[in-house]
Specification:
The structure holds two protein chains of two kinds. Chain A is an all-alpha fold. Chain A contains five helices and two strands; from the N terminus they run αββαααα. Chain A has two domains: 2-79; 82-141, no CATH class. Chain A has a two-stranded antiparallel sheet with strand order 1-2. In chain A, α1 runs antiparallel to α2. The relative contact order of chain A is 0.08. By secondary structure, chain B is mainly α. Chain B has helices at 2-7, 10-28, 34-41, 50-75, 84-95, 99-133, 137-154, 159-173, 199-217, 232-235, 239-261, 266-281, 293-309, 311-317, 323-334, 343-346, 348-371, 373-379, 384-401, 406-424, 430-452, 459-462, 464-493; strands at residues 176-177, 184-185. Classes of the chains: A mainly alpha, B mainly alpha. At the A-B interface, α1, β2, α2, α4 and α5 of A face α8, α9, α19, α20 and α21 of B. Chain A: This is DUF1468 domain-containing protein.
Chain lengths: 153, 494
């Protein structure tokens, strides 16, 4: 996992550096160009991540057999937090089409009832209070123009 | 005095009161932390005037320092990282049946530390601003460079990972229009990214939504052991106990405040150092860690003083001392205020109003901190299962509210996922945020300095201030390398 993260950062820094040099110009008429800061810091970032990558590779080579077993276990547990990510993305879609009140009520209620396994009555009370707070603070007080549902809220 | 008249207007006093109360509540919730609390509540201040808004956010910050001790004492889970040290003695006191005494000690010490911090801020804030006025672009660039290096260095266990995080923050800040040339950079052809990554969704994602992911990955529930009920009367300290904690609290407050002045060090480093100092010179040094009220006092005094101390570089130089003050800096910029040496001259009402509100807010925190004691046990019983959807909804609504954009909600989710996986691999997320906030100023100052000098790098070494700052920066950068070389040569000898 750490190796993958470092590799992604390294590649990202490489892209920043390439764009800074080739597209945005590093130095222009005795003055720094738009790519000046991105290039400097992407080079520093590449150097640091390269250090971390080499360290990680050395570690993996040292305990090769042990690491392979551990990596399989890690990859399964690492995927668990993706549940709220998928759930939140779905909530954003509902928010776009059903409006803030309906979507926020559903987001909290469905999670409490189905994932947190909270009793129906308690889930309902918490969701209603939370939605009411959101409505009062963000819609009534702050007057944020949220998307609205067919019901007009 | 002018500041007090600003602070005591009804709206500002209410903002301080609500901020302090919310700060205590958020701080008491295990694992949320000040940065997450301030960032999630930042959208609530959009419609307030800047002074009231920042007074409320500052109240949340120092209120959080009070609240952090509660879960550290009762659950052995610090509400925020500065309260880690509080848990050492606080939880031992709970096991001995003295939870109330520990919490009251935390409140008194927080008040003492906070008061020291505020007095020092009142005295040294304007002095620091005067020094800041002498800074040209080269000095400003050098100072920000030092801040970025020390931030990466001080936060997290591995300096290299801290520096990687800081560099990531800088690269993220380059997305959007380049202030000097007006060209769009690194926006991947997206119109939504032309203005850059919006600060509030980024911060809510990094500190709020990532918390949801952390709670999911660690399914262990919090449990309040051994305490059924707390009463204010039983929690009050005797005169002898108060005398026992007073001087250590003052000592730690001064130390914590000094540490808070340093960019990146913040309240956590202050509380650790204060505890170490007490272990060396304190009267109870041999029994510290076994459940001593002095242990709780030194940690709490130092972290409150540190939190207030971090306002000095923020207001005077525009350099945040911690991730929470970086969120506050983002808030200030959102309201069109530019923290720095000129802020004391251009917006005296705002600066002195904020500082004066802290005197008032600190007293409020002490009173509220004692008043919530009887309700604390039942409050801390709120399950993680209930907290997760609540935080999720606040994150979603808050990230939309800043720019009325669904794209910002997406930024929040992505930032949360990235911060979570980085944190899992021990990359601290605070340097990302601090660098993201500081980098635009670094770029402007650096390019101004180089334009003045016609591209000569000598401009950074011509003036003694920038030269000294840069030497310190390089020393900090080289230190991990030298440390490794020494360790390597020692290993070879053995």
């Amino acid at each position: 996992m750490e190796l993958a993260i470092n590799l992604i950062i390294f590649l990202l820094a490489g892209y920043w550096c390439q764009q800074g040099l080739m597209v945005y110009s590093f130095w222009n008429k005795n003055q720094p160009g738009s790519g000046f800061i991105p290039v400097i810091f992407s080079v520093i970032l590449m150097a640091f991540t390269l250090m971390l990558i080499l360290k990680e590779i050395r570690k993996i080579l040292k305990n090769r057999s042990h690491e392979t077993r551990q990596a399989t276990v890690l990859s399964l547990s690492d995927l668990r937090p993706l549940l709220p990510v998928v759930y939140t993305l779905a909530a954003i879609v509902v928010f776009r089409f059903a409006g803030v009140v309906v979507s926020m009520f559903l987001t909290s209620f469905v999670w409490l009832l189905c994932i947190s396994k909270v009793r129906l009555a308690k889930s309902l009370i918490i969701s209603v209070i939370l939605t009411l707070m959101v409505y009062l603070i963000f819609v009534m007080w702050l007057r944020i123009p949220f998307p609205r549902s067919i019901f007009g809220f | 005095m002018q500041g007090f008249s600003v602070a005591f207007t009804f709206s500002n006093a209410m903002a301080a009161f609500i901020g302090a109360l919310l700060g205590i509540v958020v701080g008491a919730m295990p694992g949320i932390g000040a940065a997450a609390g301030v960032s999630m509540l930042l959208p609530m201040t959009f419609k307030m005037n800047p002074t009231a808004g920042i007074i409320m956010l500052a109240g949340i910050y120092y209120g959080n320092m009070y609240g952090g001790a509660y879960s550290a004492t009762l659950l052995n889970i610090p509400g925020d990282t500065p309260a880690v040290v509080t848990a050492l003695d606080g939880y031992q006191l709970t096991l001995k049946g003295k939870a109330g005494k520990s919490l009251a000690t935390g409140n008194y010490a927080s008040f003492i530390g906070g008061s020291i911090g505020i007095v020092f801020l009142t005295i040294f804030g304007p002095l620091l601003a005067e020094i800041g006025l002498k800074f040209g672009p080269a000095e400003v660039a050098a100072l920000i460079f030092l801040a970025l290096t020390s931030i990466g260095w001080l936060l997290g266990d591995d300096p290299v990972k801290g520096l990687v995080a800081a560099c990531l923050g800088i690269l993220l800040s380059t997305i959007g229009i380049d202030g000097a040339s007006g060209n769009a950079r690194y926006n991947f052809g997206s119109l939504n990214l032309i203005g850059g990554i919006t600060f509030v969704p980024l911060v809510i994602g990094m500190f709020g939504f990532s918390q949801v992911l952390e709670m999911i990955s660690d399914s262990k529930e919090f449990k309040v052991d051994g305490v059924k009920k707390l009463s204010i009367r039983e929690s009050m300290l005797s005169w002898a106990e108060f005398k026992e904690i007073f001087w250590p609290s003052v000592r730690s407050g001064v130390l914590g405040n000094f540490i808070g002045f340093l960019p990146g060090a913040g309240a956590t480093t202050g509380s650790f150092l204060a505890y170490i100092l007490e272990k060396r010179i304190g009267k109870k040094r041999h029994t510290l860690g076994t459940g001593e009220i002095t242990g709780v006092a030194v940690s709490e005094a130092a972290n409150n003083a540190g939190a207030v101390g971090s306002f000095a570089p923020l207001l005077s130089l525009g350099i945040p001392g911690s991730s929470t003050s970086a969120v506050l800096l983002g808030g200030l910029m959102m309201w069109g205020l530019r923290p720095g040496p000129l802020l004391f001259e251009s917006n005296p009402d705002f600066v002195w109003g904020l500082i004066s509100s802290m005197y008032f807010g600190n007293i409020l925190c002490l009173v509220a901190g004692m008043a919530v004691l009887p309700f604390l046990v039942s409050f801390l019983k709120i399950s993680k299962r209930v907290m997760i959807p609540i935080i999720m909804v606040i994150c979603l609504v808050g990230s939309y509210a800043v720019g009325n954009s669904i794209f910002d909600m997406g930024i929040m989710v992505v930032a949360g996922v990235v911060a979570f996986y980085l944190k899992k691999q021990a990359f601290p997320s605070s340097p990302v945020l601090l660098a993201f906030v500081l980098a635009p100023r670094l770029e402007v100052s650096m390019r101004q300095a180089l334009s003045i000098s016609q591209g000569s790098l000598w401009v950074f070494f011509e003036k003694p201030i920038s030269a000294v700052i840069l030497i310190c920066t390089f020393a900090l950068l080289l230190f991990p390398v030298i440390q490794k070389l020494i360790a390597f040569s020692k290993a070879r000898k053995n």
